Amino acid sequence: MAVLEIKKYPEKILKQKAAFINNIDAHIQHLIDDMIETMYSARGVGLAANQVGIPKRLCVIDVSLKEDKKPLIALINPLIIEKEGTVEAEEGCLSIPGYMTNIKRAERVYARGLNREGKPVEIEGTGLLARALQHEIDHLDGLLIIDRMSPIKREFFKRRYKKFVKEMKSGR
Ligand code: NI
Predict the structure, then answer these.
(1) Residues lying with their CB under 5 A of ligand 1, a single-atom ion
(2) What is the tens place of the pLDDT at every residue in 113-168?
(3) How far away, in angstroms, is 19 Cα from ligand 1 center?
(4) 68-77, 90-99, 106-115, 117-126: lowest mean pLDDT where?
(5) Integer distance in angstroms from the first to the last C-alpha of the chain?
(6) What gap in Å lies between CA 141 and CA 167, rounded to an integer?
(7) Residue 51 C-alpha to ligand 1 middle, in angstroms?
(8) Which active-site residues does the annotation give?
(9) What is the residue range of 131's domain?
(10) Residue 89: inside a domain
(11) How many angstroms separate the alpha carbon of residue 13 from the centre of ligand 1?
């Protein structure tokens, strides 16, 4: 297993819609393992394949670090099939390090996809799991948390973040 480089905003691949996976082969299973390793190493609760430079519909999620016992999930070609309620909470993203913002999401979601063996699975998510599922599937559609903010807040972010990155690089 290897820790992969996580692509950071504003890299273009993060805006790209990821392609459906037709063939779940050893190559995909290897990618899943590397993504799990990368997610844990970055202490994230989820990671989408385009965040490591592979524009394919695949994500891994493990919310057990932050919330009680939930299994590690690897989902291929995931889709949200049902949503209920709305809840706003603070959210971050490994591709926008150091930034947190409040995002409105559905409170409960039902997602469908394939597991690493290619078997169809359905996942019901509430709390952080619901949020992570929506966040990662957004990534696969080329959407970041900033795309879920109001245009005014987004403009403000863009201006501030450039400055923030510059400051981080100069070690201030
Ligand atoms: Ni993210």
Answers:
(1) 93
(2) 999 999 999 999 999 999 999 999 999 999 999 999 999 999 999 888 888 778 77
(3) 18
(4) 68-77
(5) 34
(6) 30
(7) 8
(8) 136
(9) 12-169
(10) yes
(11) 13
Which CATH number do you get for residue 48?
3.90.45.10
**How many domains does one find in the chain?**
1
Helix (H, G, I), strand (E, B) or coil at 57: coil
Contacts of 168 (CB under 8 A, 6+ apart): 98
3-state secondary structure 70-104: CCCEEEEEEEEEEEECCEEEEEECCCCCCCEEEEE
Residue 117 lies in a domain: yes
Could you give phi then psi for residue 106, rounded to 5 degrees?
-65, 150
* pTM, rounded to two decimals: 0.94
CA–centroid distance, 132 to ligand 1, in Å, is: 9
> Residue 96 domain-assigned?
yes
Q: Let me know if residue 146 belongs to a domain.
A: yes
